[in-house]
Design brief:
347 residues, alpha+beta, paralog of FGE (formylglycine-generating enzyme), 2 domains, 5 helices, globular, binds calcium ion
């Protein structure tokens, strides 16, 4: 074979290997997209510090490096998406006959679930603090009488799973997996109860202070959502991984971590979903991080290990999301001429 053919063959083989191979050890990855922080890969125990049955058993997992939004997606950012695409969220659409055949036409008006405090001295029925409010949507988080005035930098709420996915397709990125989300929330402090250590501190996050669901002293300064980034960041520079609003993840919910596959970057597949025993037959996504409604007296689900299940078609006034993205590939330095000249010449 003529000598120059071998040189070209070698060049293409080398370039191919460079494109296929992972970055060499020690290589500095490219910067994450604007607004995102690098979550450096590593091993951790999902479910560490578990307090509730659905958070157990803990499992040792390995997570590859990835990028994650520093903050929850804000109303202003979501508004830019809607302005650019004309997207209509699930809560803004009439309820379908197929999904809710039992409803009358008058009951099909668009709406969503809104939290309302429940007081009184008698027993409080579980989840009685959630009310279906016609006209509640992301622009009117508490219903028709509410708006986003002064809340441009608050996290968007009243977004269903498919709304979050639609935003992700437009913005570039994806919802994180539960394993990614929990790893990121721990900020490099593995095996701790909270994102900053083992001692609860209400001034580190937007949660609920006082007896839930009747009385919130708002010691942390906020009775509802807070502007994103109002509380200290964790070890990875991520804000509001504790409290403010729950965040959608890609994983399908099952009680416990048993369905997680071994190995790196696990995710519960749709086939593995066993669902929420409180609501049999409804496949739900895992939400993480807790919200401004989580209290020490009720569930303390603002811990990284904590998790909840949410029906994909249902937004609420305390669920939002943030996006993950792969780390941009490092640029290949040098020129083709440099690579070619570096090759040994055979023949
Ligand atoms: Ca609060």
């Amino acid at each position: 074979m003529p000598r120059f053919h071998l040189r070209f063959l070698g060049t293409f083989l080398l370039v191919g290997l460079l494109l296929l191979a992972p970055p060499p050890a020690g290589a500095i990855p490219s910067d994450c997209p604007e607004g995102m922080a690098l979550v450096p890969g590593g091993s951790y125990r999902i479910g560490a510090g578990a307090q509730l049955p659905e958070e157990q058993p803990g499992r040792s997992l390995r997570i590859s490096s990835f990028c994650l939004d520093r903050t929850e997606v804000s109303n202003d950012r979501f508004a830019a998406f809607v302005a650019a695409t004309g997207y209509v969220t699930v809560a803004e659409r009439p309820l379908s006959v197929d999904q809710f055949p039992e409803l009358k036409a008058s009951e099909r008006a668009p709406g969503s679930l809104v939290f309302q405090p429940v007081g009184g001295s008698g027993p409080i029925e579980e989840l009685s603090w959630w009310h279906w409010v016609p006209g509640a949507d992301w622009r009117h988080p508490e219903g028709p009488g509410s708006d986003l005035a002064g809340r441009g930098q608050h996290p968007v709420v009243q977004v269903a799973y498919e709304d979050a996915e639609a935003f992700a397709r437009w913005a570039g990125g994806s919802l994180p997996s539960e394993a990614q989300w929990e790893f990121a929330a721990r900020g490099g402090l593995n095996n701790r109860i909270f994102a900053w250590g083992n001692t609860w501190n209400p001034r580190r996050a937007n949660t609920w202070q006082g007896p839930f669901p009747s009385s919130n002293s708002t010691e942390d300064g906020y009775g509802g959502t807070a502007p994103v980034g109002s509380f200290p960041a964790n070890g990875y520079g991520l804000f509001d991984m504790t409290g403010n609003v729950w965040e959608w993840t890609q994983d399908w919910y099952a009680v416990g971590h048993e369905p997680l596959a071994d190995g790196s970057d696990p995710m519960v597949s749709s086939d593995a979903a066993t669902g929420d025993p409180r609501d049999p037959g409804v496949a739900k996504h895992v939400i993480k991080g807790g919200s401004f409604l989580c209290s020490e007296t009720y569930c303390s689900r603002y811990r990284p290990a904590a998790r909840e299940a949410q029906s994909p078609d249902t937004g609420t006034s305390h669920i939002g999301f943030r996006l993950a993205a792969p780390i941009p590939a490092p640029a290949v330095t040098g020129t083709l001429a440099t690579l070619t000249n570096a090759l040994p010449v055979r023949g």
